[in-house]
Amino acid sequence: MTMTSRQAYHERLQTLSEGSVHVHFDAFTDIDWDNPDFAIDPTDPRWVLPAADPLGGHPWYQEQPLEVRARIGLWRYANIVKVGMQFENVLIRGVMDYLFALRNQNPEFRYLTHEVTEECHHTQMFQEFVNRSGADVPGGRRSFRVVSRFLPLFGSLVPESFFTGVLAGEEPIDHLQKAILRGGDSLHPLMRRLMQIHVAEEARHISFAHEFLREKVPGYGKARRGALSVAFPVIMRVLGDVIVVPDRKVAEKIGVPHWVIKDIFWKSPEGQRLLRDLFSDVRMLAEDIGLMNRTSRRVWRMLRIDGRPSRFRGEPAPHRA
């Protein structure tokens, strides 16, 4: 007997839910915050950013004294973590808005409440790191912090756009964290532990967003799919920048010149390559669910996030060349 698309989707939700039951983390039992090895010293050379980080790989940064690189590195980690906390706060509120009207027996309810639970622990984990770092970082740009008051409404009003936005925030940071962990550089053990936990659980969250769009989008009418095909790359680029690109004024306060930020995000050849690499998995998704058409391809190209899609989710960047 052939399994229907809906049955296959529900089966995958069950698998994801069971994964959340058997493999999950608590912000205050799975991280030994008071372990001396996890102590945060701004001059610790292990805060120096690895080459896998866009700023860490830039010649200007690499030419700075060790103490300066460590201080800037701690600030960058803290600010990315703060943006992650803010983004996941929006995700939690939007998911709860989506869940409010779900009918009984819908297995999305169980999985998504697991995801919200995990994201709550992530926000605790991230804010605890920021507090202990001593870096008074703002996180996302002011415009994002203002708009974030309204973004959760998309969870129920336009769920396909909301979960596209979820991917736009999760995919870039997942890509960067995996690259850093794979790089083998000397990384502060506390930051390594945070990344390991985040990558492990975000794999399920990203999987759900992919599966949600694969299940829902093909059944939409032509107009709704057409609108999403154009909105999809725009959402990716806008929210991706919120996650990855540091605020110019804040960067200047800790001594990173504006021209360096512009060069990295995304003027230099290396920056342009990274920008395309960040969205290779979602380009694959857009191809698979029919969101790549003549008009939308132009938008991807105009936003400079076009390129070859991944052959499979999580394909390392060097193998996509």
UniProtKB/TrEMBL annotation:
Pfam family, one: AurF
Cleavable signal peptide: none
Matching Gene3D superfamilies: Ribonucleotide Reductase, subunit A
Protein name per Swiss-Prot or TrEMBL: Diiron oxygenase
